[in-house]
Amino acid sequence: MLKKLKNWLESLLLNVQQSDNDDYIQRIELLLNELEASNNVNIDMAEIVAKLNDEKKALQLLVPVPKPTITKPSWLKGYMSYKPRRRFVSKNLDITKLFTKPQYCFDKSTLLYELLKKNNLLNVEKTFDNMKKIMRLITGMITYEYDKTDNWRPITDILMFGKGDCDDSGGIAITSALGMAGWNEDEVFVAAGWFYKNNDLDKNNRGGHAWGVAKCDGKWYVLEGTNRSAIPRLWSTWKNKYQGSWGLCNWKFQGMIANGKTYLEDE
Fold first, then answer.
1. 80 CB neighbour count, 10 Å cutoff
2. CA-CA distances (angstroms) from residue 149 to 84, 89, 91, 257?
3. Which structural domains are found in the chain, ordered by start?
């Protein structure tokens, strides 16, 4: 009986190794130690079984609910017209290469994971406040510096370097962080297109730009990574300032906004 309980408890411990709940894992380990010491110590088997049942119930609460399969949004069509590039430097070369797909700009990052975990921003509710916290955390770590050439860096490079331009901070960094924090693949993107300084669609006063966009409570927000005030702004009110004319992308999807639109409309 003890052997069966021990085997079951060991399998239970194995199943929660990825739960990131250190307190829960420690409690299981303590129970396991009790069972291992049972050859020399008189223990109350009923008490052990009761504890195991409690842990089993707790485990059921920890089992993550499978994420629904996310399909490409109907408003996102075809491919981005903009083609991101990455700079590579070695002893003999300094070259820039096109990404085959803009999705390849995104990488999984242990550094980003640990940063979000440290700040209690993993698997959070998709609220405006949490979106703002993540935006502020990321922008506070990156100093704006214009690239020598177009260079969409992956998130670990951006965080380690601590410097970047619009596609690094507002683009890859904030989009990656929100995705890891809990936003779905159809809820956060890098947008690329025209930025109008005076919000007046004056073609003589615009420049190419990249920024983050995220959906919260049915509304789309601009997440400007080059501004450390880190305040998400409704895209519908800034549609003449931020025009996603060159398309949107994240780690899974890319495309142009359907019907010739240059911003995403709220629900």
1. 22
2. 11, 12, 18, 27
3. 2-62 (no CATH), 76-260 (3.10.620)
